[in-house]
Amino acid sequence: MNNKIGLFPGQGSQKPGMGKEFFERYRDWVEIADECLGVSFKELCLNDPDGLLNRTDFTQPALFAVSAMTWRSMQESADADKIIAAAGHSVGEYAALFAAGAIDFET
Fold first, then answer.
1. What contacts 62, CB < 8 A, 6 or more positions away?
2. Dihedral over alpha carbons 84, 67, 11, 23 (to 10 degrees)
3. Alpha carbon 14 to its chain's center
4. Which residue, 57, 70, 59, 90, is CA-closest to 29?
5. Averaged in consecutive runs of 10 residues, what is the pLDDT profile of the chain (107 residues)?
6. For position 1, what pLDDT does the model report?
């Protein structure tokens, strides 16, 4: 059967380098995240030059965006039909709501 579940992390799991596999692949969402955050989402997640990644007002939307891109990647995989549920811890709940179709990326 090999069913899969998307489990999304909460605040505290952020670290420089997160999401690096998605920035070129999902440029459309990177642009939206840039606009919503008011800083370069890619630079924030990869290098955190201004030390903002541990500030809640940047941490939570960055974690959501990386989680959403992870979900998008899962949906594009050959095993997409095996994903049966999504759950999240803390801010990860928003990614789970996104995965369930309850909210869109910009929300």
1. 14, 18, 19, 33, 37, 41, 44, 45, 53
2. 170
3. 10
4. 70
5. 88 95 97 95 96 96 96 86 90 95 92
6. 66
Helix/strand/coil for 93: helix
Residues 6+ apart with CB under 8 A from 28: none
CA dist 98 and 1 (Å) reads 25
CA distance 83 to 85: 6
Asked whether the beta carbons of 8 and 67 are under 8 A apart, the reply is yes
What is the identity of the amino acid at 65? A
> Which one-letter DSSP state was computed for residue 19?
T
